Structures are given as C-alpha cells and as structure tokens.
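name: query_chain
kind: protein
chains: 1
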Amino acid sequence: MNISRRTGKAAIRSPYTLILPAFALCLIFSVLPASMSIRDSFYNVDYVNEVDEFVGLANYRSIFTDDVFLKVFKNTVIFMFCTVVISVPLAMAVAMFLNKNRFIHNLTQSIIFTPHIVSFVAVATLWMFMMDPRSGVLNYILGLFGLPPLRWLMDSSTSLMSLIIVAAWKTMGFNALIVIAALQKIPAELYESARLDRSSPLGIFFNITLPMISPVFVFLVTTSVISAFSTFDLVKFMTAGGPRNSSNLMVYWIYRTGFLHFQVGKAMAGAVVLMLFLVVVSALNFMLMNKRAHYQ
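structure:
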C-alpha cells in the first residue's frame, strides 16, 4: 500500500504529468486539425455528396492560378506588415510616456488596455460608425484640417487601410502594458549612471532602454505577426472582404471557400500555405531578432 502511494505521488509530481493536460489540448485542438488540413489539401472533399477523392497537387495548382487567392495573400502580407510596424513602435512610445507611478498615468494605462478586452464585434461596430462616410467622426476631423472626406470601408483604395487602423488600435493597449512591465524591471542604477555621464535621452534609449527590453520587443513582434495572419473577426463584421476583395484576408478567404462555397480541398490547400508561410516568417523573425536581444 505504501509503495503504491509513493508511486502515485511520484507520478503526480512528475513534470510529464503536469504538462499532460496542455499536451492533450494541443494535440486535440492544434496537431490533429493541422494534420487533417494537410491531408484534405490533397483531396477533393465534398461532405454534402460524400465525396473524398485523391487529386494530388490539383488544389495547390488551383489556388496559385487563382487571381483572387493571390490578391488575398498579398492583402494579408500588407496587413501584417503595416499592423506590426504601426502597433509595436506606437505601443513602445505610449509605454515610455506612461511609465510613471502617478494616478493619471495609472488611469490612462487602464483606459488604453480596455480595447484589448472588448469583443471584436463591439470594436467593429464602433469603428463602422466612426468611419461612416456621411456622419462619421473621422471625416469630420478630416474636414477640420481641410482634407477631403474618405469612404473608408466602402472604397477599395481605403478599405484595407481602415482595417489596419482598427487592428493597430485594438492591440496597442495590450502591447503597451507589456512594454511598461518590461520598463519597470530595468534597474534604476543604469539610468542614474547614464545621467552622471551626461548621456542624451536618445543615447539612454538606444543604449539602455531598448537593449534591456529587447526580449519583450521580440515577443511582441512575433505575437503581432501571428495575430495579424489569423485576423478574421474584423473582416467578417466590417467589410466581408469587399469591396472587390480589397480587404479580404487569408483566414476569411479560407472560411468562405470551405464553408460557403464547399471547396474544402481548395480551402485546406490555402490553409496549409498560410501555415507554412507563418512558420517561416515567425522563425526568421525570431532568429534574426533574437540575436540582437539582451537576456541578461
């Protein structure tokens, strides 16, 4: 009895037992669906008529000769690049300004974090009212500066830009709080020594602040890239990919192709391409930026 109890306690304390729930969830909700997507990308799948026919690389040839897919893929890359370039530096600038232990700064931190916890449906509804061409507040602000009004979500030349603005605004607060937490871990002695050496503010930022928070910077860029590639809600509720696929992104294209047009094999081929591209971009980003990160 004592031996079985000791064996049970040892099994419970084993690190493999502790990671088993997370491993099981990852296997069920990530590995298995990804494996099924890869398999279905080589098949002509029709769940309605119960068709499951092997077609080899036909689905991949189909998407790479599809002008809509190529346009959607280009939109997704532009959306990812612009969202990361806008949201991460802006979050760092806001974090530098709010990194003070005062009531107004603490209150502002809570306010800018609010968009992150608000649902995408509420965010999309709010910004659709603000971007209304006739009565939206954004066109009113443009008018104050003598600028012509924009059609925002209704024009193919501005629809993708509109989604980029909303995505950057929603993620900025979360990114800023992460940077603030990193800033507060920097030893004050480093700044005191820099001031005694009469270093300029820019010199302090590039020689002390940026190197010390570089691991967080790598983390934010990587997670922002993944988040941008997986954007679905904004497209679904704000533009539905229009007009003329000018704001359509990969995940929404996969959803429409698979669930609305019932071209499951083609949709899965697009999903595999997106997954491989995301893996390559994330790995390159991590390897290139991680070399410059300061972990000590």
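note: The mean pLDDT is 82.
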